[in-house]
Amino acid sequence: MNDNSIFIDTSQNVSIEYELAGLGSRVAADLIDLAIKFGYYIFIYVVIFAFAYMKSYPLMIVAAFLLFIPLIFYSLIFETFMQGQTIGKKVLKIKVVKLDGQQASFSSYLVRWLFIFVDFFPVFPIIGLLCVAMSKRQQRVGDMIAQTTVIKLSDGVSLRDTLYERLAVNHEISYPEVSLLSEEDITVIKKVLNTPEYLDNYDMVYTLTNKIQSKMNVTRREPFPQEFLQAVVKDYNAQQDE
What we know:
By secondary structure, the protein is mainly α. It has two domains: 5-33 and 74-152, no CATH class; 159-241, no CATH class. Helix content is 56%, strand content 8%. It has twelve helices and four strands; from the N terminus they run ββααααβααααβαααα. The chain has helices spanning 23-53, 57-72, 74-81, 87-92, 106-114, 116-119, 126-134, 141-146, 183-193, 196-199, 202-216, 225-241; strands spanning 5-9, 15-19, 94-98, 148-152. The strands form two sheets. Strands 1-2 form a two-stranded antiparallel sheet. Strands 3-4 form a two-stranded antiparallel sheet. The longest helix is centred in the first third of the chain and has 31 residues, at 23-53. The radius of gyration is 22 Å and the shape is globular.
């Protein structure tokens, strides 16, 4: 493992190496989230103005209190319910994880949220930017306290690194049970199939194959595990195109 990566034990019992998210992708994700929060702020302003115009001041106060809660707790809410991602992080395909590669807990997200006020002090996030740029694991202060970091979920934008798989015109689905698989399952399969060092690791491929067969409740018909995994990815894409 190099200094710019971390191993993640996936739900398929396969340990995958992921690259740490760089400063650029993290800033871009934050800007997307900031744009979303700004749009929501405008919505709040319109609602409050409407109540003020109608002179419904008690309702205005209640509405302002309730509507500001999602704005204040934006990152905590989304990272908790989207398993380490805000909308911006999801768009940039990055995710918060523990340093040991495990799924971060609510307490970890809470600590990260609390230390936003340190990382962004006083207004511009100079402390957070410097920490991410200079720390070995590219962590801001909140990450250091929570023992978390942010990883990339994909290594690039080529078709080989996406869920997409080129299909023959007359492709027939061999395993309709692929509907039981998640996007995460297919992402892990693609990661293994497209990474030579993983593909050469027979134990990893065999473990992943058994896990996928179990989740689909099928027995592979292909002689080699790799062929089964390739068939699963193609069938998944074929189902998505239907």
